[in-house]
Amino acid sequence: MSPTRIQILLLLLVSLLVLPGASSKQERRAWKLLETSVEAADDPEDVFDRAREYLEKYPSGDGTIKAHSYAGRAAFELKRWKLARQHLESYLSLGGRDELDDIRLKVAIAVGKEGDVTGGMSQLANVLANAEDTQAGRTAGRELVAQLLFEGDWRRTLTTQGTMLERGFFEPELDIEDSKKAISVARREIKSRGRTWGKDGWSRTEKSFEEPTVRGLLAALALEEDGRLLDSVETESDRRAWASRFPEHPLVDWVPGASVFMAEDEDVNPDVVGLLIPETGKYAAPGELVRRGVQLALMKAAEQGWPQVDLRIVDTAGDAVTAEAGMRRLVEEDKAIAVLGPMISAEAEQLAPLTSELAMPTVMLSQRPGFEADNPYAFNGWIHPESQVRALVDHAIHRMGLQTFAIAYPAKESAGGLARRFWEEVEAQGGKVVSVESYPAQETDFRETAQRLIGTYWEEKVPGEGDVQLPYMPGRSKPQLADEGAKVLEPGLDFQAVFVPDNYRRVSMLAPGFLFEEINLGGHIEKVPSVVLLGGSALNHPDLVNRGGDYIKGTVLVDGFFLEANRDAVLEFKKAYRANYNADPTLLEASAYDATLFLCQLLSEGVTSRRSLLQRLSLASPMITVTGARGFEPGGAMQHEMLTLQVRKGKIVQVWPTTDTGE
Description:
The protein has 663 residues and is of the alpha/beta class. It is 51% helix and 11% strand. The chain is built from 26 helices and 16 strands. Strand 1, helix 15 (284-303) and strand 2 (310-315) form a beta-alpha-beta unit. The termini are far apart.
């Protein structure tokens, strides 16, 4: 039976009522008024009121989802944060799909404005990381940066800007200013801890970040502050070095000439590596040790199946002028891709600036640190004193449980720098330095030094202004000489350890003098608290025990290379060295071995230009190491995983990491 005309009309009417858009005349009128108000775009209060009215009357209406969007946006504009968040979250939960990045951004801001700052920042970070809409992502990043700067969190500020750089949301003309504000906060924080930013402040800060985008940003800011971001001949080597380190950095167009430098061809032979060592003159003996380490590394590289290196050796004779001439020859005639050396400090000082002028990646082996710090093409493979100090303090405080320290150091620049760094690290890790004293660099009788350290020297004397000062440690004075007069300290109670940044010969003479004044090194004196002697790699020598005997029992020191370490790489290196030279290797050969093998590793990975090698030197880590080398930090010094050693039962043994000793 076919449907009647009335039945058909009824079916059509029902379908209209259930189909989307089938709303009452009143609802359609309300919606029309709302959209008219939205299109006018001049009265958010009116939009908000009409959207709310619509939602109250028609909570399940056809326009419910969009009405929540209109209400939330209007409330946001009116700074009614709670209502804005509620409506915008309703829009999202009901399945709204238009302008999602902008909606999520507004929700994040509203959450923070309501008082949940942590929650708001978390949501802003999520928008920044995931937004497809550039404007929403950029706004989220800047809003988050502003809040982090307000809280003084400079590290998260720079990390956030690193994300902005990665995502293409960073605009230098607008965002660099916030980067500088973050650095200002960092400087104030460092100053509040009694430390100074110093010339290595930029490098130290850069190396504390893992993100290449943040490191590149900091390196560019450092150039700008030093006036080296100007487009001039004088600054070209620095700008070239930045471009080589960060060739794909989003700021490459902000650094003058960087993109041009990266497009230039290089006249280089990727198989040739230069070696600057003294083969004649008074430094010929240590030069020969470096050559041995290099040759063993080349043998190991061949075993690994890595491409052979054409090694060109230049005899510097220990002369800086000769070394410079050799460096220029390696660049201009031999077309070397890299240079190993020099090892003599005077040569390193002369050649470090030349590495940038010639754009030659150079891995020095200088025992005096710092020449590499301001020269981006210069690196230093030697164990950096800062790594030693950090590891020593970490072990003393966190594994030995020591909290109070004294320092006795020879009056020379290098030792003063180590003493200052030890002091700073102790304070940074929650300990306290209660007494500091210097002594003449060639001192042989240390009883007076001990008396000054514990304060008994001043029992019948009044210290003058000069007595309070510490040589080679500007801005620091002796803590035991307080304003009210000299303090007399009880070793073992007032300080539990004494740090002596000197060599094993001097320390073996110092120990008996200290013991004479009842600084109980080695625990010789009964019923008197013992004091631990602390030192660096300069104590790691068998003669420390032979000379010092029981006086240096219990001494704790750190080093990256320990001949008795139970590591496969060390065992293999020691075996090969003995087989070839019938002797035991020292840190000098080990450092040369690691530096050479690291270069061979990078060349085996397809590096064919100085530019790409510079970048890889800054980012890569050694696969094989006998000194605990972990890679170069931004300042150019090699980072090392340090070993903690101790004098026990008449010999030096490894105590940390414990897995290497079986103890």
